[in-house]
């Protein structure tokens, strides 16, 4: 037995039940037999029976996993809140600074003595410091330069 679409059924009723009289404009494609439809429905029901327990198990496992993840995140959040509270609360007692004793001064004096020279920079290597020059040295250098230039000209 064949199933008919609404258009085909209407055409049959209009033309007196003769499928050849429906005309070429009507879609007259064969449809699936009832036995085949019933067989497919039975196969789908069997497949659903096999898949259903697996789906339920997967859903339960997923729900359990999500629940555990939520518990872990809530624990981490509580720990973070406790740490934040500890950081934001002012200390109950102010720490007292220890007074400096003469021993500390003696240690510092021993470590930093006048014998230590400051490290020289590679930038200043080979240059003379300006503070070592006096105005007499500068004048003597200029006089020597003038004499040398006069000798070269002569």
From TrEMBL:
Residues 115-154 are annotated as: Disordered. Residues 139-154 have a biased composition (Basic and acidic residues). This is Integrase core domain containing protein.
């Amino acid at each position: 037995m064949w199933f008919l679409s609404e258009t085909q059924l209407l055409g049959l009723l209009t033309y007196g039940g003769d499928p050849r009289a429906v005309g070429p404009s009507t879609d007259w494609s064969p449809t699936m037999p009832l036995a085949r439809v019933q067989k497919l429905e039975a196969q789908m029901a069997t497949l659903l029976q096999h898949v259903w327990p697996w789906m339920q198990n997967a859903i339960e496992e997923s729900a359990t996993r999500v629940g555990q993840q939520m518990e872990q995140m809530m624990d981490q959040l509580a720990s973070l809140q406790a740490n934040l509270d500890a950081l934001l609360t002012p200390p109950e007692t102010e720490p007292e600074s220890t007074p400096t004793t003469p021993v500390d001064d003696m240690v510092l004096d021993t470590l930093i003595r006048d014998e230590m020279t400051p490290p020289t920079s590679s930038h200043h290597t080979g240059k003379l410091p300006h503070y070592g020059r006096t105005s007499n040295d500068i004048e003597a250098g200029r006089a020597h330069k003038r004499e040398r230039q006069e000798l070269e000209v002569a």
